[in-house]
Amino acid sequence: MNHKILLSFLLLFFVMATSWAQNDKSTRPSPPATASGKVGDATITINYSSPAVKGRKIWGDLVPFDQVWRAGANEATIFETDKNIMVEGKQLPAGKYSLFAIPGATEWQFIFNSETGQWGVKRSGEANRDPAKDVLTVKVKSSPSSTMNERLAYAVTATGFALRWENLEVPVRIK
């Protein structure tokens, strides 16, 4: 009888451990990452999943030009500010937003959307964004990166934030 209890316990432990491991986001191919910093008095935090290049052509291929993109992998990228800020000269109230982008060959759009917590893409493959909940859209210019960035990375600087991936950098000014 003791062997049955021990076997049942071990089986239960195995099932629970497997379940916990599946919820460990750090083991994903595109692990979670956070960029945080100050722009003036505002604290800016960007939570995203960081895919790798893995020898693929990113811009205009894996991430198509002129289509809405979740600005990361897995769940929609989250942009949070604790103060009202000006993004590329336009007002963005303090709060938490899903950040989407429309990459272009030289010009990009970043979209701040009030819906958060959703998976980044729908089953159809398109970005999981409700345009009716867009709060702000800004246009910015991309430029070649000084280094190859194997993983998607955001950086918050004193002047705003930048997306860096593959051989591209996309800075966004914040005041």
UniProtKB/TrEMBL annotation:
<protein>
    <recommendedName>
        <fullName>Asparagine synthetase B</fullName>
    </recommendedName>
</protein>
<dbReference type="InterPro" id="IPR021314">
    <property type="entry name" value="DUF2911"/>
</dbReference>
<dbReference type="Pfam" id="PF11138">
    <property type="entry name" value="DUF2911"/>
</dbReference>
<feature type="signal peptide">
    <location>
        <begin position="1"/>
        <end position="21"/>
    </location>
</feature>
<keyword id="KW-0732">Signal</keyword>
